[in-house]
Amino acid sequence: MPAPADLDRLRIVLVAARNPLNIGASARAMSNFGCHHLRVVSPYEAGFREARSAVGASTVLAAAEEFKTVAEAVADCTLVVGTTAVRHRDLQHTLRRLEDGARLIRKRLGSGSNRVALLFGSEKFGLSNEDMSHCHWLVRIPTHEENISMNLGQAVAVCLYELIRDGKAARQKEKLPLAAASEVERFTAVLLENLFVSGYLSRRRVADAELRIRRLVRRLNLPARDAVIWVGIMRQLLWKMQSGQAASVTTEKMG
Q1: Which neighbouring-strand residues pair with 117?
Q2: What does the pLDDT read at residue 104?
Q3: How far apart are CA 135 and CA 82, in angstroms?
Q4: Predicted confidence band at 5 (pLDDT cuts at 50, 70, 90)?
Q5: How far is CA 65 from CA 36, 40, 130, 235, in A?
Q6: Taking Cα atoms as reference points, which of 27, 36, 28, 29 lies closest to residue 4?
Q7: Distance of alpha carbon 185 from alpha carbon 111, whole angstroms
Q8: Can you list the pairs that 75-78 forms with residues at least 24 positions away whose Cβ atoms lie under 8 Å?
Q9: Which of 167, 173, 174, 232 is the most buried (most CB within 10 A)?
Q10: Residue 170's pLDDT is what?
């Protein structure tokens, strides 16, 4: 995830947004993901700062900067990326999938003091060719063919999520202490006893069955705490099976 200082260099630019509620929803999405710099170009509704949809994002909306042109809105940015839902439109720009574009944006944000602008067009028409002429390249969200256009606030949220989500970052796995050889052998022994009593190994007559089971257990790399639990489970199962067999023998004798 980009550092807060990196996200502080990101500018979300809404071009000719028609609905103030969508501007508010965009501000809310920005606040959700730690992005605070909103710029609007020629908004259709001048009273967008009072949008009720900006839940928890009033500061983002209040601090939004207004511009008359896209050129003015991106003048201080070294990378300008446009968004589009196009499928067959003739574009004169490189078009990247969102995940690929997000990776490049993260890289630019992390290099020095570069500012990056991410442009979103109006809800009805998207970015015009003139708007796109200010972009270095474009990204698109892969939506379904039957309904390719997304709500403005949703589009901002999806793009910001992908931007903070580093797909290559290794997930931190909980490192648990592994069971000692003696604990693993204790589990193996009670497992084998279960397999014998249940008849599993009797039905599968393999010369080296016990050795195979022992190797299988080692491949599990059991954590110490899990080994203790598994031994308890196996012992309970074994007790249940042996109790059932004893009851059956008693019944037969009585009969």
Answers
A1: 11, 80
A2: 93
A3: 6
A4: low
A5: 11, 6, 21, 69
A6: 36
A7: 53
A8: 76/115, 77/11, 77/114, 77/115, 77/116, 77/117, 78/108, 78/114, 78/115, 78/116
A9: 232
A10: 46
Q: Quote the CA–CA distance of 159 and 96 in Å, as a whole number.
A: 13
Structure tokens at 251: 């019944």
Give the pLDDT confidence of 110-164 residue by residue, as tens digits. 887 789 999 999 888 889 999 999 999 999 888 787 777 788 999 999 999 999 8
Structure tokens at 71: 């050129």
Tokens of 11: 């500018």
Tokens 């009033």 sit on residue: 58
Kindly report the pTM of this predicted structure.
0.67
Name the more confident of 7 and 113: 7
Provide the residue type at 214 as one letter: R
List b or e across 171-208, with b for residues whose CB sees 16 or more CB atoms inside 10 angstroms: eeeeeeeebeeebbebbbebbbbbbebeeebeeeeeee
